[in-house]
Predict the structure.
Amino acid sequence: MTTLGTGLVRSRRWLRRHPLAFDGALAAAVLLCMLCASFAEPNQGHGPTFGVRAPAASGVLLMVLGAAALVHRRRRPMAVLAVTGLLAAAEFLLADPPAPVVMSAVVALYTVASRTDRPTTWRVGLLTMLVLTAAAMVAGSSPWYGQENVAVLAWTGLAGATGDAVRSRRAFVDAIRERAERAERTREEEARRRVAEERLRIARDLHDVVAHHIALVNVQAGVAAHVMDRRPDQAKEALAHVREASRSALDELRSTVGLLRQSGDPAAPTEPAPGLAVLGGLLDTFRNAGLPVEVACTDRGGLPAAVDLTVYRIIQEALTNVRKHAGPGARAEVSVVRVGTTVEITVLDGGGRSAGAVPGGVPGPRRADGGGHGLVGMRERVVALGGTLAAAPRYGGGFRVHAILPLTSRTGEPEVPGPADRTGGRG
């Protein structure tokens, strides 16, 4: 059944692409029906009898001309109806009993009704019915109320009604399709409008958060610098306010960034992408912040752009986590080594002590509000290139981030989150 249905669908598609072939096949089928009917003799009470009579040569010629005219029924439906109607009326007037040339006129009338409007269908249909029925009644040897004459009236009327119904259904389907497309466009426009409004709201929130907290940090830092020498206690209080304000700003920014990450619509970069060529400047910022960093890098050039950027971001995020979580006594080691067709990145910290860590360097209980997107972002970047990432506490203290990236980027399958992502991870 599936194969049959598929074949029918393909046949319909082919016929729609080649309407002339369909009309030619229809004309041949109508001609065959007319020839078969021309050999039949109506028999009252017992149905038609075949083989009793044969059509005249003029009848065969008229049938062939009527069928040939149907090939052009789509391009010129009114002209084809006029030709087939005249041929049918001529057969009624010239032959007795007439050959069924009227079949071609019935098909032509259906085409006109299905491809024009209703008023035209009514006018043309009534005219065709009257002309053909009158010709059959006047020229035929049977009584005017004979079944052959009634059949002409019925078949022409049925052709007009069927064509009008088909045209109405096509118009109805087209109207439904147009409404559906218009509704889809409206939904898309509404969705874009809502997205624009939400982005504007988030932009206002970001502006408020940054403006308020940075202004507060600036004021308190100025106070601390002013009274540092004379009133150190007041300076410490001001610095405590600075720390609290910056923490609040980071928490609110984290919440807003979380909403932006769920939108799945990352902004296009407006600056050149960083890479290993500027790794020294990145490491200097951490050293200036009090984090000693040792580097072993075998190759700082020649990497593909996507891989180069990912290496830089992994090192940046891993060192940021070391600075945030490892404490004042921490030291970091960074290595970038090319091994065959892959590059390996390793970032180690020595497990310094901090308020958020327990002895041994394993991260202690997390805050109730959860962490950021550090490890998640690293893992997404690595998986996007078809690499692997391992991030977990080290035995004896500290933390280790190890990534392997192929030099030829490819899309990887999502990995199952490792232990560092589920419990005890950093972000």
